Please model this.
Amino acid sequence: MSDRIEAIREAERKSHTEIYSTAKLFEKGSWLAKPVKTVMDLLPMLREKNPVTILDLGCGVGRNCIPLAKELSENNCKTDAVDILEFAIEELTVNSKNHGVHESVNPIVSSIDDFSIEPDKYNLIIAVSALEHVSSEEVFRKKLHEINDGLKQGGIVCLIANSEVTETDKSVNSRVDPQFEVNIKAEEMISLLNGAFENAELLKVSVSEQNYDIPRENFISALSTKVVTFVAQKVK
Ligand SMILES: C[S@@+](CC[C@H](N)C(=O)[O-])C[C@H]1O[C@@H](n2cnc3c(N)ncnc32)[C@H](O)[C@@H]1O
Model:
C-alpha cells in the first residue's frame, strides 16, 4: 500500500475512533442521529421479500443497517455488516444487542477491498460514504462489478459517495491533499456507475454539493464535496 493511502487510513482510523467514542448512535444533534432517508425509502420494496439479505459496506456503528434490520424483523432479515475499523464493529455489536437485532446482523471486520462479495447473494447492497475509501480507482471499478454480481435478480444497490473533494487548511488558507483514497469527478463517477450497472433500472441519481468544516489531525479543514447518490435495481 502506498504511503499516501496508509497515511489517509491512519488519519481515518483516528478520526472515526474519536467520532464513534463521542457521538452515540441515534443521539440527537450528531450525524448519527438518523439513518439515511434514501436508504430507508427502499423499505417498501424490501418488505415484499422473505428472506431479505443485505450487505452494508463501511457500516460504521450501524446507523443504517440497524434500523433496516428492525424494520425488516418480520422478513427474516440477515445483514453482513463490514467495516475496516475494529472499534466501529465493536460498537455495532453493542448497538445491535441494544436494539434487539443482534441475531440478524453479522458484524465483520474487513476492508471493503479485501471483503469478497459472494455472487447472487443480496437483495440490497449499500455503501454510504465508504466506497470512496477503497485503495485505488482500479479497486473502486472492480468493487462496482462485484456489487453488481452480488445482487440477486431484483436486488437493489444504493451507493452514496463523495466526489470532486477539495480541502483547505483554514488556518493558512491553503489547499491540502483531500483525505479520500479515491477522489474522482462526479461526472466520471456517474459514468462508472452507469457502466457497472448497465443492466439495472435506475431508481435515483443525484449530485449534491456540500461544504462543511472537518477536523483533521493538526488543523480544521474546509471541505467541499459533490455527493453522488446512485440507486438502481438489477433487472437482468
Ligand atoms: C463516514 S463513515 C459512514 C459509516 C456508515 N456508512 C454510516 O452511514 O453511518 C465511513 C465508515 O467507513 C469505514 N471505512 C473507511 N474506509 C474503509 C474501507 N476501506 N473498508 C471498510 N470500511 C471503511 C470507516 O471506518 C467508517 O466507519
Remarks:
- The pocket of S-adenosylmethionine is lined by residues 12, 16, 58-60, 63-64, 82-85, 88, 111-113, 128-130, 133-134 (CB under 6 Å).
